[in-house]
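pasting for the record
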Amino acid sequence: MTDLSKLAAVKSMIDAAETSINSAKQILSELIGDKPVKIDYTIAAKTLKMSDNIIEGIFDGQNMIGPDKRAYPVPANYASKSKLIQGDVLKLTIQPDGTFLYKQIGPTERKTLIGRLGFDDNQYSVVADNKIYKVLLASVTYFHAEVGDKVTIVVPAKQESEWAAIENLLPKEDIEE
Protein backbone atom coordinates (compact mmCIF):
# COMPACT_ATOMS: atom_id res chain seq x y z
CA MET A 1 0.00 0.00 0.00
CA THR A 2 1.49 3.35 -1.03
CA ASP A 3 1.70 6.34 1.30
CA LEU A 4 -0.91 8.12 -0.81
CA SER A 5 -3.40 5.26 -0.57
CA LYS A 6 -2.71 4.96 3.18
CA LEU A 7 -3.51 8.67 3.60
CA ALA A 8 -6.72 8.25 1.60
CA ALA A 9 -7.69 5.26 3.77
CA VAL A 10 -7.00 7.20 7.00
CA LYS A 11 -9.02 10.19 5.75
CA SER A 12 -11.90 7.87 4.85
CA MET A 13 -11.79 6.29 8.34
CA ILE A 14 -11.80 9.72 10.02
CA ASP A 15 -14.76 10.86 7.88
CA ALA A 16 -16.68 7.69 8.77
CA ALA A 17 -15.87 8.17 12.46
CA GLU A 18 -17.14 11.79 12.35
CA THR A 19 -20.37 10.63 10.77
CA SER A 20 -20.76 7.86 13.37
CA ILE A 21 -20.17 10.31 16.21
CA ASN A 22 -22.74 12.74 14.80
CA SER A 23 -25.27 9.92 14.43
CA ALA A 24 -24.58 8.72 17.98
CA LYS A 25 -25.07 12.27 19.30
CA GLN A 26 -28.39 12.51 17.49
CA ILE A 27 -29.60 9.16 18.88
CA LEU A 28 -28.46 10.10 22.40
CA SER A 29 -30.25 13.42 22.09
CA GLU A 30 -33.45 11.63 21.05
CA LEU A 31 -33.18 9.17 23.95
CA ILE A 32 -32.69 11.80 26.65
CA GLY A 33 -35.28 14.13 25.13
CA ASP A 34 -33.10 17.07 24.18
CA LYS A 35 -34.33 19.73 21.81
CA PRO A 36 -34.09 18.95 18.09
CA VAL A 37 -30.50 18.87 16.90
CA LYS A 38 -28.99 21.02 14.19
CA ILE A 39 -27.22 18.91 11.60
CA ASP A 40 -24.32 20.08 9.47
CA TYR A 41 -25.26 18.66 6.07
CA THR A 42 -21.72 19.07 4.70
CA ILE A 43 -20.45 16.66 7.38
CA ALA A 44 -23.41 14.30 7.07
CA ALA A 45 -22.97 14.10 3.28
CA LYS A 46 -19.27 13.15 3.46
CA THR A 47 -19.95 9.41 3.52
CA LEU A 48 -22.41 9.41 0.63
CA LYS A 49 -21.52 8.09 -2.82
CA MET A 50 -20.05 10.18 -5.60
CA SER A 51 -18.87 9.20 -9.06
CA ASP A 52 -18.58 10.97 -12.40
CA ASN A 53 -22.30 10.88 -13.10
CA ILE A 54 -24.01 9.84 -9.83
CA ILE A 55 -23.89 11.95 -6.68
CA GLU A 56 -25.74 11.32 -3.43
CA GLY A 57 -26.40 14.22 -1.11
CA ILE A 58 -28.60 15.73 1.56
CA PHE A 59 -31.39 18.22 0.87
CA ASP A 60 -30.91 21.45 2.86
CA GLY A 61 -34.25 23.05 2.02
CA GLN A 62 -33.27 24.41 -1.40
CA ASN A 63 -30.21 22.51 -2.64
CA MET A 64 -28.61 19.08 -2.40
CA ILE A 65 -25.30 19.14 -0.50
CA GLY A 66 -22.92 16.56 -1.94
CA PRO A 67 -19.95 14.75 -0.38
CA ASP A 68 -17.74 17.34 -2.09
CA LYS A 69 -19.52 20.05 0.02
CA ARG A 70 -20.91 21.54 -3.19
CA ALA A 71 -24.53 22.71 -3.38
CA TYR A 72 -26.40 21.21 -6.34
CA PRO A 73 -29.56 23.14 -7.28
CA VAL A 74 -32.77 21.14 -6.85
CA PRO A 75 -35.64 22.42 -9.03
CA ALA A 76 -38.24 24.04 -6.77
CA ASN A 77 -41.07 22.29 -8.61
CA TYR A 78 -39.53 18.87 -7.90
CA ALA A 79 -38.84 19.76 -4.25
CA SER A 80 -42.42 20.99 -3.82
CA LYS A 81 -44.10 18.12 -5.65
CA SER A 82 -42.01 15.54 -3.77
CA LYS A 83 -42.49 17.39 -0.46
CA LEU A 84 -38.76 17.26 0.23
CA ILE A 85 -37.63 18.43 3.65
CA GLN A 86 -34.25 19.17 5.18
CA GLY A 87 -32.33 15.98 5.82
CA ASP A 88 -33.79 13.93 2.95
CA VAL A 89 -31.15 11.96 1.04
CA LEU A 90 -31.21 12.44 -2.74
CA LYS A 91 -29.45 10.82 -5.66
CA LEU A 92 -28.48 13.03 -8.58
CA THR A 93 -27.79 11.37 -11.91
CA ILE A 94 -26.09 13.58 -14.47
CA GLN A 95 -27.17 12.43 -17.94
CA PRO A 96 -24.72 12.38 -20.89
CA ASP A 97 -26.44 15.49 -22.27
CA GLY A 98 -25.89 17.32 -18.93
CA THR A 99 -29.46 16.95 -17.65
CA PHE A 100 -29.79 16.61 -13.87
CA LEU A 101 -32.20 13.91 -12.63
CA TYR A 102 -32.95 13.83 -8.91
CA LYS A 103 -34.51 10.98 -6.95
CA GLN A 104 -35.32 10.85 -3.25
CA ILE A 105 -33.63 7.72 -1.84
CA GLY A 106 -33.70 8.30 1.91
CA PRO A 107 -36.54 10.28 3.45
CA THR A 108 -35.87 11.60 6.94
CA GLU A 109 -38.45 11.04 9.69
CA ARG A 110 -41.28 13.57 9.39
CA LYS A 111 -43.92 15.28 11.47
CA THR A 112 -46.90 17.31 10.29
CA LEU A 113 -47.90 20.68 11.71
CA ILE A 114 -50.69 23.16 10.99
CA GLY A 115 -49.90 26.83 10.55
CA ARG A 116 -50.68 30.06 8.74
CA LEU A 117 -49.03 31.23 5.55
CA GLY A 118 -47.23 34.56 5.73
CA PHE A 119 -45.03 36.69 3.51
CA ASP A 120 -42.23 38.92 4.73
CA ASP A 121 -39.01 40.22 3.25
CA ASN A 122 -39.72 38.60 -0.15
CA GLN A 123 -40.07 35.11 1.39
CA TYR A 124 -43.16 32.97 2.04
CA SER A 125 -43.25 31.29 5.43
CA VAL A 126 -45.55 29.37 7.73
CA VAL A 127 -45.89 30.04 11.43
CA ALA A 128 -46.51 26.74 13.22
CA ASP A 129 -45.72 25.50 16.71
CA ASN A 130 -44.35 28.96 17.68
CA LYS A 131 -41.72 28.78 14.92
CA ILE A 132 -41.37 30.33 11.48
CA TYR A 133 -40.60 27.94 8.62
CA LYS A 134 -39.64 29.12 5.14
CA VAL A 135 -41.55 27.50 2.27
CA LEU A 136 -40.83 27.41 -1.44
CA LEU A 137 -42.75 29.75 -3.76
CA ALA A 138 -43.47 26.76 -6.03
CA SER A 139 -45.48 25.13 -3.19
CA VAL A 140 -47.47 28.29 -2.56
CA THR A 141 -48.36 28.71 -6.24
CA TYR A 142 -49.13 24.99 -6.68
CA PHE A 143 -51.76 25.11 -3.93
CA HIS A 144 -52.96 28.60 -4.95
CA ALA A 145 -52.41 29.58 -1.33
CA GLU A 146 -52.75 33.13 -0.09
CA VAL A 147 -51.27 34.95 2.88
CA GLY A 148 -53.34 34.08 5.95
CA ASP A 149 -54.42 30.67 4.66
CA LYS A 150 -54.20 27.72 7.01
CA VAL A 151 -51.89 24.99 5.69
CA THR A 152 -50.42 21.71 6.82
CA ILE A 153 -46.65 21.48 6.58
CA VAL A 154 -44.12 18.68 6.88
CA VAL A 155 -40.88 19.19 8.85
CA PRO A 156 -38.14 16.88 10.15
CA ALA A 157 -39.30 15.10 13.30
CA LYS A 158 -36.00 15.04 15.17
CA GLN A 159 -33.81 17.82 13.84
CA GLU A 160 -33.99 21.58 13.58
CA SER A 161 -35.25 22.99 10.33
CA GLU A 162 -35.71 26.44 8.91
CA TRP A 163 -37.60 25.05 5.88
CA ALA A 164 -40.87 23.14 5.58
CA ALA A 165 -42.79 21.54 2.74
CA ILE A 166 -46.43 22.46 2.28
CA GLU A 167 -48.47 19.26 2.51
CA ASN A 168 -51.88 20.76 1.83
CA LEU A 169 -54.08 23.83 1.91
CA LEU A 170 -56.91 23.54 4.42
CA PRO A 171 -60.39 24.50 3.21
CA LYS A 172 -61.42 28.10 3.87
CA GLU A 173 -64.35 27.08 6.10
CA ASP A 174 -61.88 25.38 8.47
CA ILE A 175 -60.11 28.71 8.96
CA GLU A 176 -63.08 30.29 10.74
CA GLU A 177 -62.36 29.80 14.43
